[in-house]
Amino acid sequence: LREARDLAAAAKDLDSLHEAIRTFEGCELRKSASNTVIFRGSKDPRVMLIGEAPGRDEDIQGEPFVGAAGRMLDTMLTSAGIAIEEVYITNILFWRPPGNRTPDTREIGLCLPFVERQIELIRPDLLLMIGNVSVKTLLGTTQGITRLRGKWFSYQHDGLTAPIPAIASLHPAYLLRQPAQKRHAWRDMLAFRAALRGEQPP
Ligand code: URA
């Protein structure tokens, strides 16, 4: 069994990396999943959006953020004037955890080399980290999303030559349960749009 880190490092372009993820046998979540869910949007984007894990709809359709949460995310992006074709949308996990439970640190660790390699190969100008799992994993922090949202961070890992500005925001699945929080997420989205367009932040 080849390690995720070796497989990820050996992938010299995005298509080979996607193939390496699809054939990776090291994560047991794939046994209960119907699909490997990797990305949706542009393969040559300026920005990457990173969520948590596929849910039921994503597992069935094989693409990230295509259920109710995904529809809300798309509406927020397009309402902010960001086209889906400008963004690479992915998750920390490529397989659905059974019953949508929160992924554990081992499962996250197994997928992380592939997440990092996607970031290296795409070299986005900006990252949007969606929800607790994404923010905690990418920033290596234990602080929760309600404290971190709306703030800009400098994302870095060993294989990156330069840090990437990254902003954290609330997960649309959470917004579906707590609609009053949408105004915070909207403010974050406008800050993200402003950074992407080189505009004055709102
Ligand atoms: N939630 C996520 O974090 N990602 C998806 O792809 C779908 C729901």
Brief write-up:
By secondary structure, this protein is of the alpha/beta class.
Q: Could you explain the architecture of this structure?
A:
This protein has 202 residues and is of the alpha/beta class. A hairpin with an 8-residue loop joins strand 5 and strand 6. It is built from ten helices and six strands. It has a single domain, classed as 3-Layer(aba) Sandwich (Uracil-DNA Glycosylase, subunit E). It starts with a helix and ends in a 5-residue tail after the last helix. The model has no long low-confidence stretch (mean pLDDT 97). It is 45% helix and 13% strand. The protein has a six-stranded mixed beta sheet, sandwiched between helices. The structure holds uracil (URA). The site of uracil has 13 residues, from helix 5.
Write the layout of secondary structure elements.
Layout: H1 4-10, H2 14-23, H3 29-32, E1 40-41, E2 47-51, H4 56-61, H5 68-79, E3 87-91, H6 105-122, E4 126-130, H7 132-139, H8 145-148, E5 152-155, E6 164-169, H9 172-177, H10 182-197
Parallel strand pairs: 2-3, 2-4, 4-6
Antiparallel strand pairs: 1-3, 5-6
Helix pairs in contact: 1-6
The side-by-side strand order for the widest beta sheet comes to 1-3-2-4-6-5
Radius of gyration: 16 Å
CATH homologous superfamily annotation:
Uracil-DNA glycosylase-like domain
Q: What's the overall average pLDDT, rounded?
A: 97
Quaternary organisation:
single chain
Bound molecules: uracil
The biggest beta sheet is recorded as: 6 strands, mixed
